[in-house]
Amino acid sequence: MAKKKSGIEVQRETAPASTEGWPSMLSLRNEIDRLFDDFGVGLWRQPLARRMHALRPAGREWLPQPATEFVECDGEYRITAELPGMSVDNINIKLNDGSITIRGEKSEEKKEEKEDYLVSERHYGEFQRTLSLPAGVDADAVKADFANGVLTVTLPKSPEAKQKERKVEVKSAT
Q1: Which stretches in the chain have pLDDT values below 70?
Q2: Which CATH number is associated with domain 6-17+64-164?
Q3: Quick one: CA dihedral 51, 18, 15, 126, positive or negative?
Q4: Global confidence as pTM
Q5: 71-99, pLDDT tens digit by residue?
Q6: So where are the chain's domains?
């Protein structure tokens, strides 16, 4: 079965990120929580894993974040994020002076009526993930594809960044 790919428009912002205070602290908190979540896997059945209802800032909810991978390969950086059940229309990507924000929202409603009962279900969720970008990303050539519930964002390196790369030889100390 052939994979169906859909292109996603990557928006580029030049305005500075919000200096409201919470976004940077929220990002730090999420990274620390992710480290604790990863640390607890398999050791103690995740006693350190955060609870989604704990420590909410006033008037805000913690947003769940998708599993995300950031790798460097073949002269580019690649971000992959697992977004099951999402559609390309519900995903928004923005580049902003050294960072990339991937945001998505899903809303689903199901209603089933029979003679003697009525079932109505509604599911809603949103996420936002902001990652810092390394220097040397060619922001004008960034592209994103979405296929089978996996978002792939390709961030090519600029020609200058590619020229600065060099291999370092590793010698044995003995």
Answers
A1: 1-6, 13-23, 36-64
A2: 2.60.40.790
A3: positive
A4: 0.58
A5: 988 889 999 999 888 889 999 999 988 88
A6: 6-17+64-164
